[in-house]
Amino acid sequence: MIVLRLRPGPAKDEVLTSWVTRLATEQMMRPSRLTNCLGLRGFWRQDPDLNATPEQLAGLAQATLCRLGQVEALTLAPIKRRLTARPDVARPPLLVLLGRHRGTRNVAGHPACPACLREGRAYLRSWRLATTVACPRHGTMLVENCRHCGAPISVTRAHFQKAQCAQTLPWTPERCWRCWERLPLGGVVPTPALTHVLGLQCLMDAAVHSGEARVGDLSLNAADLTGLLHPLTHVLLGLRPKVPPSVFDDLRAPLGLPPGVRAAGARPVLELLPPADRFQVVALAGWLLRDGLVSLLPELRVRGVRFTDLLPESTWPTPAWLRDLVHDQLARRPRQRRLTSLPTDFQRLTDEQWDRLAPLLTRAPGAVRSGGRARAPRDVFEGFLRRTTAGTTEDQWNHIPGVPRIKTTITHLKRWARTGQLDDALSELLNHLAEHGLSPDEPTTSALNSDPPLWVRQTLGALLAPRTLSVLARLGSTHHASLWNAALRLGLQEVQTA
Ligand SMILES: [Zn+2]
Ligand SMILES: [Zn+2]
After folding, report:
1. Residue limits of the Insertion element IS402-like domain (predicted)?
2. How far is the CA of 144 from the centre of ligand 1 (A)?
3. Of 20, 62, 179, 406, whose CA is between 20 and 30 Å from 454?
4. Helix 454-463 vs helix 421-435: crossing angle, to nearest 10
């Protein structure tokens, strides 16, 4: 068994190949010679950072007198395990692939910050995350090719010049292995975009290192975060047929990004793109997620991104609660309210409530007949709230006793919406709820737990039901946005406390 005489320890967050290369240069050897001497067969054959076998890692640990766990922590395996809930996946999303694995021969180098390399730092594991596109230390973009000659940056060639292969030179990662120029620094990035890029990078770093990241009000683990980020980047890259990337164009100028640049390539998924292209997607995603789901979902909704665009069936596994939440917020026809504990059994308004509404809602002259008799506005309004909470189909709806037919309801609602009566009535209803201790602008789980009367909770449950909200959106109600935000916040709170 060989034990190396000179054994520099791994740097913080250093990647395995970088450390092995530094070990080799210390012994005045090429990296491939070192691994041969240590009997690590086929070590370099297939991206060792991702695919090194336990035997190879054990060999390295013996030769350097390190603990096996310490060597394993240099590989991408722990990150990969956190990123995916499925152990069988060879290539989890959001990990940058190198060289031919990316399908682009000789152009896919190791992402790196040349400024960090000039300071003699090692290659970092976090540079292999697809979300890492800028250096937080230097504020510049990562690069993966030499700008002089186009050669891909290579960790294992960070030590010798091709023309002088016989010589072993010290660890010089800041020079291009082909043209021997110093690697030019990465481009300076626009400040507004950098803020959001670093925000998202920190989130992802925290998730893969500690296993958990705070996204707005929620704390997500790395697999959940991948389940959200992976489809989101697909939307931003224009991989969803119904969402052209141009719907995000108005964000580019304020973020300092160039106008809509389409990603090239047959499969422009994030992990296959060069850092400059990834930068734009990460900046947009960072901006969308600046307050977590509270900022993401309304923004996607405004831009017409639907549930099926964000989370199609075949996508990477997403936690069930997130699917439910996104479904209720983005689907055109939400199924039901599943995320708040408000009661779903609204039946009738109290007489006190109706006394407040009665002067505001008049009978619509065009639709007085239903089943041969005129329907009172109270029946219609109650029917509206009942239908949207009960989640009945149109057929079932017409058989609920004591409720006007659906046509009557729709005619009334449309007319009330046109004349502003609907918004006035909703304002009155909400004020009345606020007088009884439940402000719908800021409903909190603690307020709900402090036991407001049942009818108050039932009314709020009816108003915040996804079906009510989707009808209010179609009617163009001014209350729609605030009620929708209230429903989202309440849903998130309940997820968080569950
Ligand atoms: Zn740097
Ligand atoms: Zn070069």
Report:
1. 349-423
2. 13
3. 406
4. 140
Asked if residue 381 lies in contact with residue 463, where contact means CB atoms within 8 angstroms, the answer is no
Distance 113 CA to ligand 1 centre (A): 5
What pLDDT score was predicted for residue 32? 86
Distance 328 CA to ligand 1 centre (A): 42
CA dihedral angle for residue 129, residue 134, residue 137, residue 138, rounded to 10 degrees: 150
- Give 447 Cα–ligand 2 centroid separation in angstroms: 63
**Which ligand ends up closest to the CA of 154?**
2
Centroid of ligand 2 to alpha carbon of 178 (angstroms): 5
Q: Which ligand is nearest to the CA of 143?
A: 1
- 150 CA from centroid of ligand 2 (Å): 6
Q: How far is the CA of 178 from the centre of ligand 1 (A)?
A: 22
Please calculate the CA angle 167-172-176 and round it to the nearest 5 degrees: 90
Distance (angstroms) between ligand 1 centre and the Cα of 131 equals 15
Torsion from C-alpha of 371, 375, 378, 383, nearest 10 degrees:
20
Type of residue found at 498:
A
Residue owning tokens 């013996």: 62
pLDDT of residue 321: 79
Ligand of minimum distance to the alpha carbon of 120: 1
* Contact of 116 with 137, CB cutoff 8 Å: yes
Q: Which residues pair with 370 in a beta bridge?
A: 373
pTM of the entire predicted model: 0.82
Amino acid 360: pLDDT: 85
